[in-house]
Every structure is written in structure tokens, then in C-alpha cells.
Design a protein that fits this description.
Length: 436
């Protein structure tokens, strides 16, 4: 790693330390661009679903991906449960009871939550019961305390059993053999509750994909260090780290590498033990764009390079051994969009999720927007509900050189390459971003 800590202008390195022979192997400008759906399906078909698993305690499983269906082996609730404080009764015993014509039963026991009654309710009998307690044998309903009056063991009932018998029957929620939680889902707080209800506390989840993130660019400096003329702060390693973390991976910010092939090779060689390497910058075809040829030299098999999209055209995707490599464009907007379109689906698949990538919905655009036809576009947008429909605002700022509006973006609007005008009210495909 050659992270810049200097205040001086960095002296530009010469394009690369490659021999003329090595540079000749570089693919030419002329190669055709891959369409987005093809590129995405190449990404996904290259990746096997689901890394290995680990077993976690329930309380550490939030946000992880469940890898096996969890089958309940208990009834939830495990027995008929009282929903109210009151008296457990046989409903036919209190039929017709009212304030004017109370029914009188004899109390034979009392059950608080956590205990069971050893008694079976017979004719003329009732048991005092608390909320959450087990309804005794023989009873099928609970009469609320406020509609009763007790004197010694004698209880008067002023109401009969209505529509709600205030008893939750055994297994109302789940029964043995039911799937309590399905494999491939992200474990949510609600799912944790369901698993707890079944008494399940050891949860098989997918290991987090390990993602190394490397920014390339001799102009880059880490935040926290004063910048000198010609330098800029490294956005990508930080934004991509955050995106990876939000996607459920275990990222490592490996820092900045200058535009020197030897440095990059050295850095890459440290990270072929990872599941994914995200490089940003230097992946175009400029003189100092050393990423493609360095990857080839490092033995990375190219799966595709350059996609017919805007932003994010220069994207490289390849593989070495079990490691997938993305060469993302240096432009922070482009690499951010590329992450959502390609990296996240790959992480999803490595995680063994049951669906990969962005959820796509349809919404109507709020305003007319003139576009330059060419590549398929992914415009930054913001969703909003009006009273009647879901609308999407195309953010005014769409220049890929301007990163700040990304923080106000919650969707990417996918527009086919040939479209030169979006009309207000038109329905468009909208990719929901889980993290932006
Ligand atoms: P490149 O893809 O290396 O040609 O970079 C394209 C543009 O993005 C240039 O203006 C770079 O300075 C800028 N850039 C590259 N990497 C980063 C980064 N990590 N953070 C911020 N800007 C970057
Ligand atoms: Mg660069």
C-alpha cells in the first residue's frame, strides 16, 4: 500500500512498469460494450450461492442470512392461554348470564401465569385465572374479572361468553412441523421473536463475505490529512466500505494505492484470500489506468469489461480462484451506482439470500426530462407517495462529477438507451436502494 501522507504535490509516476509486450495484450478501445442485463447475469452465474455457514446465538443473528429453514417442534402457544384476568369457565355454564340474571359458580382453584392447575373444571365450577396462564382442563373460555363478583368461593358472573372467548388456543400461531423462519431471509427483529417463541436459540447463518476495498489513484489522500495542490480526498474506499457493510459483508478498507502497477500488484496479492476485491479508479483506458492490465497480469480471469450503462461504463468483473474482483470506475458516482447494480447482487448471492440485488418497482416520473440517447441510464431519483400514487422525482443534478446528491437519492431510475425524453406521468423502472 502506498497511502499518501505527503503534503507535497505527488510526482506522477510513468504509466506503468510494464514491458511493451505486456501493454500490447491490453484490449483495445474498440471492444463492444456489454448490455446491463447480460453483465448482471454474467456476474450472478459466476457466483455459487451461499458461502459456508456458522452457528450463532439468537441475539447475535440480527441482519445475518438464515441458511436453513427453522422448523418449530413446539406448539405456540404451547397450551390454551388466557388473554385476560378473570375466571376460566365452561361456556355453557354461563350461558345467558347478565347483570340482572347473574350465574353463580364455585371457585375451585387459582392459576397465575407460570403455573398450571391440577384441577379439571366440572359442572358448577370455575377457576380464577390470570393473563398468560394456562386455561385448566374442562374450561373453554374466560370471563373478565370486571364482569364478576366474588364472595368467598362463590363467584357471580354478569356476562356470558361473547364472540371472543379470551382463550388463545394451543398452536394458534405455530405447530410442530411448521416453518417458523425460511432459509435465505435476512434475520429481522420479528424473525428473532418468532425463533425465540419456538425455543430456537442456535441459528445457522452464512459467513459474511470478506470484501477488500482498494482505491487507486496517485491524487488520493485519506480524510484527516491536509491535502496539497493536485490532491483530493478518497471518497470511494469509504463509501464502498459503508455500502459493503450495509450489504451484510465484512469489509476491509485496504486504503490507497498509487497509479503504479507494481504497487497495485503487491496490494492485490495480499487480498486473494478474500471473497471479493473492490478496486476503484484506473480502470479506463488512459495512460495511467493500470488496473485492467495489472489484473490480467495478476492472473485474474476477465469475465467482462465495460458495460453499456451511464454512469459506470468502465466496470471490470473477473475472478481468480475463489476471489471475485470488481474494477469500479474512479468517479465516485459511477462506482457507487456500479456497487448497487453489480456488487450488491454478488454479495447477496454469496450470502445465500433467496433474491439478489435491488428490488425493482414502477413509479411515475414527476417532470419532463430531456435525455441524451446512448447508453442505458441509471438516473438518481427520489420516491414520494402522493395521495394516490407512487412518484419518482428525477434529481436535478445528474452529472456524474457531482457526488453530494447521492445522499438524497433513494432510487436509481433505469432508462433504456434510446430514450431521449421522460414525460411527466410516464411509468419508469425504479431500483430501490437499501443504502445510499
Ligand atoms: P479514474 O477512473 O481513475 O480515471 O478516476 C476518475 C475520476 O474519479 C478522477 O477525477 C479521479 O480523481 C476521481 N477518483 C478516482 N478515485 C477516487 C476516489 N477514491 N475518491 C474520489 N475521487 C476519485
Ligand atoms: Mg485514476
Amino acid at each position: 500500500m502506498s497511502q499518501s501522507t505527503s503534503h507535497q504535490i505527488l510526482k506522477a509516476p510513468h504509466p506503468s512498469d510494464f514491458s511493451a509486450e505486456a501493454r500490447k495484450t491490453q484490449p483495445a478501445f474498440g471492444r463492444s460494450l456489454m448490455e446491463y442485463p447480460d453483465a448482471l447475469s454474467r456476474c450472478l452465474s459466476s457466483v455459487e450461492a451461499g458461502l459456508a455457514t456458522e452457528v450463532l446465538p439468537l441475539e447475535h443473528s440480527l441482519g445475518r442470512v438464515l441458511r436453513q429453514d427453522q422448523i418449530s417442534d413446539v406448539h405456540v402457544p404451547p397450551w390454551n392461554r388466557s388473554m385476560m384476568d378473570g375466571y376460566a369457565v365452561k361456556s355453557n355454564e354461563v350461558r345467558g348470564a347478565s347483570a340482572n340474571h347473574p350465574v353463580v359458580l364455585s371457585q375451585i382453584d387459582e392459576v397465575p401465569a407460570g403455573r398450571i392447575s391440577s384441577k379439571t373444571i366440572g359442572p358448577g365450577q370455575t377457576v380464577r385465572i390470570m393473563t398468560g396462564a394456562c386455561v385448566p382442563e374442562g374450561a373453554d373460555a374466560v370471563i373478565r374479572l370486571e364482569n364478576t363478583q366474588r364472595t368467598g368461593d362463590r363467584v357471580e358472573f354478569f356476562e356470558s361468553v361473547g364472540e371472543n372467548p379470551y382463550v388463545v388456543p394451543k398452536g394458534q400461531d405455530l405447530s410442530p412441523g411448521n416453518v417458523a423462519a425460511g432459509a435465505g431471509n435476512v434475520i429481522s427483529p420479528a424473525m428473532i421473536g418468532v425463533l425465540a417463541a419456538c425455543g430456537i436459540c442456535r441459528i445457522p447463518v452464512t459467513l459474511k463475505p470478506r470484501v477488500a476495498i482498494i482505491s487507486t489513484g496517485s491524487e488520493l489522500v485519506q480524510p484527516g490529512i491536509p491535502i496539497a495542490p493536485g490532491q483530493i480526498y478518497d471518497i470511494n474506499s469509504h463509501a464502498l466500505y459503508a455500502l459493503s457493510l450495509a450489504a451484510g459483508a465484512a469489509p476491509l478498507n485496504a486504503g490507497i494505492v498509487q497509479d503504479k502497477a507494481a504497487d497495485l500488484l503487491q496490494m492485490l496479492n495480499k487480498h486473494f484470500d478474500k471473497d471479493v476485491i473492490l478496486l476503484s479508479g484506473g480502470v479506463s483506458v488512459g495512460d495511467y489506468d493500470i488496473v485492467h492490465e495489472t489484473l490480467v497480469r495478476a492472473g485474474v480471469e476477465e469475465i467482462f469489461w465495460r458495460v453499456k450503462i451511464q454512469p459506470g461504463k468502465p466496470l471490470f468483473f473477473g475472478k481468480r480462484g475463489k476471489t471475485f474482483l470488481f474494477g469500479l470506475p474512479g468517479n465516485p458516482v459511477s462506482s457507487f451506482v456500479n456497487f448497487h447494480l453489480f456488487v450488491r447482487p454478488v454479495i447477496d448471492k454469496l450470502l445465500g439470500k433467496n433474491s439478489y440485488g435491488n428490488e425493482i418497482i414502477e413509479a411515475r416520473v414527476t417532470d419532463n426530462r430531456i435525455l441524451k440517447p446512448g447508453r442505458r441510464k441509471f438516473l438518481r431519483g427520489r420516491l414520494q407517495w402522493t395521495q394516490t400514487r407512487l412518484e419518482v422525482e428525477v434529481l436535478a443534478e445528474q452529472r456524474s462529477s457531482v457526488f453530494s446528491p447521492m445522499q438524497h437519492t433513494d432510487v436509481l431510475i433505469e432508462v433504456p438507451g434510446e430514450v431521449n425524453l421522460l414525460r411527466s406521468g410516464e411509468v419508469v423502472r425504479v431500483h430501490l436502494l437499501h443504502a445510499a
